[in-house]
Fold this protein.
Amino acid sequence: MKVKNLVGERFKERPSDCVVDSHALMVRGGYIKQVANGIFSLFPPARRVTQKIEAIIREEMDRIDGQEVLFPVVLPGSLWMESGRYQSVDNTLARFDDRNGTPMVLGMTHEEAAVQLVREYGSTYNRYPFMIYQIQTKFRDEARPRAGLIRVREFTMKDGYSFHTSQEDLEKYYARCYRAYERIYARAGAPEVIAVKSDSGMMGGSVSHEYMLLTDIGEDSIVICPDCGYRANMEAAENIVAPVQGEEAELVKVSTPGKATIEEVVEYLHGDTMHSVKAVVYQTNAEDKFVVAFLRGDLEVNETKLTNYLGENIHPALVTEDSPIVAGFIGPVGISSEVKIVFDRSLEDAVGMICGANDQDYHYTGLSMKRDVPGAEFVDIAKAFAGGICPVCGKPHLTVSRGIEVGNIFQLGIKYSKSMNMTYTDADGNSQYPIMGCYGIGVGRLAASIAEASHDKFGPIWPISIAPWSAEVCCLRADDPETKRISEELYEALEKAGVDTLYDDRDIRPGAMFSDADLLGAPVRVIVSPKNLANGEIEISTRDKSIQVKVPVAEALDKIKEIIRTLQDQIDQTVPESI
Amino acid sequence: MKVKNLVGERFKERPSDCVVDSHALMVRGGYIKQVANGIFSLFPPARRVTQKIEAIIREEMDRIDGQEVLFPVVLPGSLWMESGRYQSVDNTLARFDDRNGTPMVLGMTHEEAAVQLVREYGSTYNRYPFMIYQIQTKFRDEARPRAGLIRVREFTMKDGYSFHTSQEDLEKYYARCYRAYERIYARAGAPEVIAVKSDSGMMGGSVSHEYMLLTDIGEDSIVICPDCGYRANMEAAENIVAPVQGEEAELVKVSTPGKATIEEVVEYLHGDTMHSVKAVVYQTNAEDKFVVAFLRGDLEVNETKLTNYLGENIHPALVTEDSPIVAGFIGPVGISSEVKIVFDRSLEDAVGMICGANDQDYHYTGLSMKRDVPGAEFVDIAKAFAGGICPVCGKPHLTVSRGIEVGNIFQLGIKYSKSMNMTYTDADGNSQYPIMGCYGIGVGRLAASIAEASHDKFGPIWPISIAPWSAEVCCLRADDPETKRISEELYEALEKAGVDTLYDDRDIRPGAMFSDADLLGAPVRVIVSPKNLANGEIEISTRDKSIQVKVPVAEALDKIKEIIRTLQDQIDQTVPESI
């Protein structure tokens, strides 16, 4: 490919609407163009990257006996009604009526379609297990698309669905797929991606993992124990609290005029946040019923865990004069019975606590949970935090990092097979629901995340395995016949050798040419210039500058191929064995 | 791939809802499953076929300097408003509002998206010409999906868009693409696909061609001149009429009680249809205005040509007592001035004709167009017909065949660049609109059409270039250790040699195994049986039975590879040189 023919423009200025580097570089490099909020077209360089990622994914899915299929983007609403998700999923699911008035949806995930496809095939036990996958467009009408290809509304996704006759068999396959995902990230040049325990959310099921590429611009918080390797998405991370024993005291109602925040109250009463009870007020989405979450004053509510416990969706409360609570002065003693109350485990043995008295400008001191709120139940609804206790090894060294989710795998159980009535006859002639797993990777997000993890201020530093082109030949003086001839011969030799090569023979300044080369990010750069040719040499370097050599013209082709092999070998060494 | 693990069921009974053979065979063979009307999922065998077709298309598009991009499926309505198609296209264009109430459409073609992508890049003349293409999902809410993958609502399409600075350059590229399409069909094993002139329809532009696979189940009528090679879609075919000179006579109003059809009238008046005037009544979609098309009694109206002439859409008229016409007795003399009248060229020199008198139960005889309808204009609105005159060579040997459209190419002109204000600065510094071409192929339809063109009652006979698997090893006695061992070794050797092979080691009757093999259509079948092994032989045959040999076990691998090469060579010989 000649740079002069490559469709797309490259430029220097960072676009003002780009918050993260990968987004800015992919716009500046002529990789992507926004068509609507969260909807992008891909220029050829980005399409080449995604194709290489897709090829890696295909190979790894085939390696674990996946069979590629294709589901529709447009699905009948009736299929989603079967599973119940037509009703339960919010307007992230795009819905429309077709010309006959039939409700249709745009597939945001394809569990329903997968069950529909194999419902008859999977009617007898001896056809199990099997896994089907596709690489196809998805649409999710996200409220807040951001960061270029990292959070979009339309994206290409590999989604796979496995079917099993026992939980044990699912777990065995889940482990194979877990490993296949590790191989995919490693092969794509992102071995630093880690798997973390996650919340299953709208997918249902019990065990699930997310693959996280750690980066400060990530939207997710990941809790990691450096001691035992425990890793979980903040949404799913268990919070262990060391009990903080206060002093036993009488429950005393004290005046706290205008002191409505934890900080104000503890300062006013000379207490501390660890010996205070925080109240966070929500309302349920369905009925606007008030929910008060009580937890220790130094902790934060984990809304995912709270939602999962409640079994219904909530939003921050809108408190008015008619509400059955006294904002700023809410406490567990004497609270209105109209309010649903949830206690975090951090309060289980609490004594000597400050809490609201459910009376304007009054708090209690000396609260003892066991004594003053007998029969209270305690559940884990607080966020884990840096320095907190690991739920596996018990050591208090948890860290919290940011990450981008670049894939997820779920043990779904029988949620879909049961709701959609997919059954098989087992060896004893009994009817059973198959147990499912599902496995997703967003292709474009992975590409952008890798650019985010691996770039400098000049452009992406693509791993050789997914770079749009492996090599670029820069002819530094297109007006010099000898330079041009040798450049051209080398370009043709590389193409002939099967090296996907970019060739820049524009008559422009070297600086401008290198700027474009940095943006396009070919891992191997070959510079043909009159100056080097005067010594009979060609300059070869890698995009990350780890290799910079000059070689005789006649050896250039072999040297380039050798460097490409070296770069590929470096990646291959990070790839774990498949299981 | 082992047949026993292959997801999808195969069965014998022809499904009652399958009208065409390819549809029935692709359902029976476990290739496709309907999800909604005109919306299908693809099982692994179909996905393999479409992937091979996609690979061929990619190679040919790259060969003519196409650059692969990816446009979104979901496009903002505003983009289609720019071109005017949001307003002009009927409800085949699926529309919905996103969560913010913004109008969105599902891309049914991507001219708008293509212009949006390259509007900035194409700002200066020296970047032209260029062509971008994608292979992506499209949704068209067709009123009448039919015939499996042949006419669907959702489909995978390769669509390409070229941009030029002169009509001459467009035509040069159009010719290259025309040839690339011939190569694609030939490489996919359908060299019998022919290009025909077509109507540009909603795409706009002047010159366009459709690629037609001739088959009786096709929806399109194709007019072909066996003498000079002229070929056109019926919609676009010019109709040349030999003048039929009647006898000059007076215009006489005659009573024709209850004779409201051409046949009744000419019989009653002892005339003939060639000397009668047929009137066909329409109404415009926009205003319900009446339009009467007059043509010679033996001809039919070509509604596409009529619509193009009128410049607006029409539908068959709903005639009531208040309508300004007398149904059954409509004629050009004395017709209401409220009615828009169009005369076909077949009436230009007509004399001595029978026609309606615009009076209940009356006709005229002796109509002379020149004398009685002075100043009438005549245009070509009649259908060409078998035995008609070729508009190119003038010989009266036209034939009419049926065909499936498996691709189309259009010279679009500046319709989109102008309406969407895409301009470039030419060498003289003037602002110009680029001239566009566009080029489409439906991948699934091509697969189904090839199955339609090449099958027997047992299954599809796939060309080797697009077959889901090149070879199938049938182990006829899985319970016989020696047969099983040799089958397995051969399967593994084939896979190792890069031959995509299906392996059937199920312990079932040979008849059932061969039925499935016929449905899956691997071009080369390898039969390992105790009977043949007793002679030290393996049986190899092709799906079309053109080759049937027995070879010693040790030679089987080489023989299979040789047969595959032979089959591929046969295809390669039909592929024209690229230009």
